[in-house]
Amino acid sequence: MIPARFASSRLPGKPLRKIAGQPMIWHVYQRARECRAASRVVVATDHDEIRKTVLAFGGECLLTRPDHPTGSDRVAEVAQKIPADIYLNLQGDEPVMDPQMLQEVLEPFADPNTPVSTLKSRFSPADKVENPNLVKVVVDREDWALFFSRSPIPHCRRPDSDPVFYLHHGIYAYRREPLLAFGKSSPTPLERAESLEQLRFLELGFRIKVPTTSHRSIGVDTEKDLARVEGIISKTLKI
Predict the structure, then answer these.
(1) d(Cα 162, Cα 165) in Å, to the nearest integer?
(2) Which distant-in-sequence residues (6+ apart) come within 8 Å of 49 by Cβ?
(3) pLDDT for 138-171, tens place per residue?
(4) How far apart are CA 13 and CA 5, in angstroms?
(5) Which of 33, 93, 97, 148 is the most exposed place for a label (fewest CB within 10 A)?
(6) 98-216 classified as CATH 3.60.70.12
(7) CA atoms within 13 A on the CB side of 6
(8) pTM over 0.85, yes/no
(9) What is the CATH T-level fold of the domain 1-95, as seen in this structure?
């Protein structure tokens, strides 16, 4: 499932912005098709121009309500129409997502007790842990999420502490029950405070498995991000 919203405060119409001659949503769709475990790839959008673009390149697309507060809400609407065991949510602004990450987010479902999964990686020296746009996650010893925050967590009060900071990657997979429960509920207090949709699952009582990946991706939110992924994709395609 690829939720693709037309409106964006910083980059309006970004699913349709061209990267190496193709709309961004085309690139994301190709990444999804490279996931070996995916039996079907569907774009869920609120805008008919995106729907027409996806259909034009041979993809599958469904129109959804325009008022969904999160991508998971949009995926949940489509899940009511398309039965499946597991839904993978690849956001529509991730044109350089490594397909290996799609496989990794699905691996926890080998355990039938896993309701929701996402990914994390260790912060690199170049990452600024204070940056609220870099979402942090803390987990228990078995990689179940304890909390997600835009603030640095854990807070280092002791000068001799040496914590590990983990960066959260906004890719999700869910079983049908927790996803439908998510879609039927309203945004929860912690979700609204942090503006992080994954907190709604925790507040509803669903655990989230967070395995570690060695890969990184780039979500496109600004013109600078767009230029950066253009350079990466053009180099890969040898344009």
Answers:
(1) 10
(2) 6, 13, 16
(3) 999 999 999 999 999 999 888 888 889 999 999 9
(4) 8
(5) 33
(6) no
(7) 14
(8) yes
(9) Spore Coat Polysaccharide Biosynthesis Protein SpsA; Chain A (3.90.550)
